[in-house]
Amino acid sequence: MGTTAHHRRPELAAFLRGRRARVTPADVGMPPGLRRRTPGLRREEVAQLSGVGVTWYTWLEQGRPINASPQVLDAVARTLMLDPPEREHLYRLAEVPFAAAPEGLSRSVGVEVQGIIDALDPLPAVVYTSRYDVLATNAAYRDLFLIPETVRIGVPNVLWTLFTVSEEASPVVHRERELPLMVATLRSCYGRHVGEPAWEDFIRALSQASPYFARLWASGEVTQPGPRVKTFRHEAVGELRMTSQSLSIDGLPESRIVVYTPENEQTREKVALLRGRRQRLWPVTDEEAAEIVQEWNTKNPAL
Fold first, then answer.
1. Which of 37, 131, 182, 190 has the fewest CB atoms below 10 angstroms from its CB?
2. Each residue of 145-187: pLDDT tens digit?
């Protein structure tokens, strides 16, 4: 069947032309050369720098329905100096399944994000990755949720803690309801990371450490993060009912701020009491907690 205008991808064509126009020869280390009629790189230059044929790239930029591999799209993305959101957009326009590059995923937060969650105190707030790794916390979160077993395990990952500690030590009261939802949320993100060693190793290791996790993972249930009312326990004040709310973070792909808000007046009073007394479930300093997170991130460089 011949290529017709109906089968073309005009959005892809416009996107590539626009991005090509903004990259200068100097940006990619090319000599200035002759004077140019239009700004940016020529098509043949993009093709050469990307290691693809001129005809193939021309057809891609014209929006023709040609097959493009992730490796080739990544090469074009590097040549055109696309940032992570633009790279993902290129994949979508080219109708190729997108997988986030490990180098595009952050293992830490900046002072701005840390300042935001610190300012939310006395509301507990934490920054999770899509795998429930803990990137940052505020004091209220540490007051309520970090338990002695976390220090012993040395893994700042919520799923790992909840599935490997005893039910009595767990800060989550209704484990039979909450843990399946967390695993289903994890699976909804796993589809973007199938085959990645860090994810596969994590799931394999946790399945070996927890038969309960292995059963839930095998069920194949999927859900998305969303606001929920959860019940937690604290050795000093008893049960607390909190509503969790997830907030996305610009510039931190697959990471989110989760804020816990008291669901009733009694819980609100307990949270205020804890803030005033700063009682913790675990006797560890902020510096020691940061060392645990740093060690985990070093051993697990990709999400």
1. 37
2. 765 555 555 567 889 888 988 888 788 888 899 999 999 999 9
